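Bumping with the actual sequence this time:
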Amino acid sequence: MSWYVRNLGFELLAPVRHLKKKDHPEAFTTIFVSYPEEMRELKFAILTSGNGVGLELFQFIHPAPILRTEAFEYTRVGFFHICVTDPNPERLVENVVRDGGKQLGGWMDYSQYGLAGHKGAYMQDPWGNVVEVMSISIERVCSAGGALAWMLEQQSQEDKTKVSSS
């Protein structure tokens, strides 16, 4: 939890809770009803970002968690990564690496979408979760990328029309 506060700027909304089923059975019959019966102990924290996005972090203690076997599990099912925006992504990546995370691959250059000077990279936290950092909001990248894709499609259609009329 503190790693996400230090590196990604999340804010802890309440103290980290440590619950054992034997001490707090009501939590396991009201809040954690979706989990299997064998879950007996966990810690959890609820964090928020500057724009109100919530991040719930769980540390399952009993049963014990299973460590990842791959360094970069890009083919696993489920959501792949979270994305954060930082005006200085290079500094953020440096901080993440210094604090036990790592950078995955190179930098993505968004100038191809007309967003000169903006870029992004994938990182991993110390537990193998993938976090993307962008120097610009996802909304701007997607809208610019969508506009570029539409323009290229129009150009392709025009090129096909020119070739077939020749």
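The tokens above came from a reply further down the thread. The chain has two domains: 1-66, 68-161.
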